[in-house]
Write a structure and sequence with these properties.
14 helices; TIM Barrel; single chain; alpha/beta; 8-stranded parallel barrel
Length: 337
């Protein structure tokens, strides 16, 4: 899997919410897909709910003749209609949605199939048994989750281990320089149990594009105008403090604000791939240039300090007993220590 992956939520623009993200048609999508593949990106991420299936259709057409070169990640769980069986992670809904996604994408298998959110109404055993069936049927290669809490993920891993079923190998999560809650519990869990992180909204819901600074109005074209209420809240002063630190590092490196923010993520434990989005080819090129170099330890430390916040309970309490609650060490670094 490539360090950067491409998020196709900007494809289709099938409703007002997703038009605020982007409205990329098939021809532009083909050019962006080709640019990604030429730069070494091999994972393309989408979901059944993105523009109610239109994004999957556009991505499928853009990948025609190239399917053997790439990995496809898509998702299910969120509503696809008004009926009671058109949402959730039940056997009925997952079987229906997996087949529908395969048809829209024009493929015979999904490489990574995510549960887009936790369904507390459906028994975990039913969800995982169904996913295990899809894996053995060859329709799904690997299963993953998204937006789970720590206990949701741990419960799911335990059920898979109990019955010998396919397990979640990845967790698609929100994580950015202005949203570091992932580090409190989900990152240690990922380290301990080998669950890689795929990062969504790595630019903090559009706040780390370099267009938002003290005393400036929001950019005219931004998802923040129409979708801010559904995104993660960020205090203005905290945001400005982080952007100030990124600006300092940007001057030292000659890189842009988004490139700094993406590169910081790529150096974090458990992060397997950062999902980048782009409205156009210029934004795509900028994001692709986030790899092939690394921030220095001093620069990483500067960004860490600027973006640090006091964690919620019980994590702030555990920090008072750090000798009994040391941070977990990734397996590849344990021998070094």
């Amino acid at each position: 899997m490539s360090a950067l992956s491409f998020g196709a939520a900007t494809f289709g623009g099938g409703n007002e919410f997703f038009r605020a993200w982007g409205n990329t048609g098939v021809e532009d999508a083909r050019r962006m897909v080709d640019a990604c593949i030429a730069s070494g990106v091999n994972l393309f991420d989408v979901a059944n709910t993105y523009s109610t299936g239109i994004a999957e259709q556009v991505l499928g057409k853009a990948l025609e003749g190239k399917r053997h070169q790439v990995l496809i990640s898509t998702k299910a769980t969120f509503p696809m209609g008004e009926g009671p069986n058109e949402k959730g992670s039940s056997r009925y809904h997952l079987l229906e949605q997996c087949n529908a996604s395969l048809q829209r994408l024009g493929t015979d298998h999904i490489d990574i199939y995510h549960m887009h959110g936790f369904d507390a109404v459906t028994p975990v055993e039913e969800t995982l048994d169904t996913l295990n069936t899809l894996v053995h049927a060859g329709k799904v290669r690997y299963i993953a989750c998204s937006n789970f809490s720590g206990w949701h993920l741990m419960q799911s891993l335990a059920v898979s281990a109990r019955y010998g079923w396919a397990r979640y190998v990845a967790h698609q999560v929100y994580y950015s320089l202005v949203g570091r809650e992932y580090e409190w519990e989900l990152m240690p869990l990922g380290i301990e149990h080998g669950v890689g992180a795929l990062i969504w909204s790595p630019l903090g819901w559009g706040r780390l594009t370099g267009k938002i600074r003290r005393g400036q109005a929001k950019p005219e074209v931004s998802r923040l105008h129409k979708t801010a209420d559904s995104g993660p809240p960020v205090d203005d002063e905290y945001l400005y403090r982080v952007v100030d630190a990124i600006d300092e590092v940007a001057k030292e490196t000659g890189k842009s604000v988004p490139q700094i923010a993406l590169n910081w993520l790529l150096q974090r434990p458990t992060v397997a791939s950062v999902i980048m989005g782009a409205r156009n080819e210029e934004q795509l090129k900028q994001n692709l240039d986030s790899v092939g170099w690394n921030l220095t330890p001093e620069q990483v430390a500067k960004l860490d300090r600027a973006s640090e916040v006091t964690p919620i309970y019980p994590y702030w309490h555990q920090r008072q007993f750090a000798e009994r609650n040391p941070p977990p060490v990734p397996a590849d670094r344990r021998e070094e220590e």
